[in-house]
Amino acid sequence: MNSILRTLARRVGAIVAECNYAQRRAAELQACPDRYLLAPDEGPDTYQEFLFRTSGRLLHEPSAADRSGLRAPR
Question: Residues near 31 by Cβ (< 8 Å), separated by ≥ 6?
Fold first, then answer.
């Protein structure tokens, strides 16, 4: 019985964590300056435009060990 409850609690925790991540990511994308540009795929024309585009939160890139799969995921 305890193992069933632990498994259920782990799954509920994973669902809550996934919802939290999705909500945070949606808020980041909504506040992203590139979203409000006419041509977001083109490079910036000026240094000021570059600074404006990078003013938001930048995504964290995983380390090389994480990308190659040498380390176990957290």
Answer: 56
